[in-house]
Design a protein that fits this description.
The protein has about 80 residues and is an all-alpha fold. The protein is about 80% helix and about 0% strand. It contains four helices and no strands. It is flat, with a radius of gyration of 15 Å.
């Protein structure tokens, strides 16, 4: 995922996807998280999320699914 992140930060989107699709997904989430957390700090409340623990669980399950699918394709 480190290689995917470094390609993403440098703007090499295709190389980021080719090196690790799950890393690309995580980099996109981190990019979206920057303005989201700024909005949350400015409004002094958590926006659009009612249960943070459940949201985190779903995010981690999706990320784990991406990782497992990618791993399966690399084994083939």
């Amino acid at each position: 995922m480190t290689t995917s992140f470094s390609h993403f930060v440098r703007g090499n989107i295709l190389q980021s996807l080719q090196s690790n699709a799950a890393g690309f997904f995580l980099a996109v989430v981190c990019l979206i998280q920057i303005p989201y957390t700024s909005l949350c700090v400015a409004s002094r409340k958590l926006l659009w999320i009612n249960t943070p623990d459940r949201t985190l669980m779903w995010f981690l399950l999706v990320l784990m699914g991406f990782c497992l699918v990618q791993w399966g394709f690399r084994l083939i």
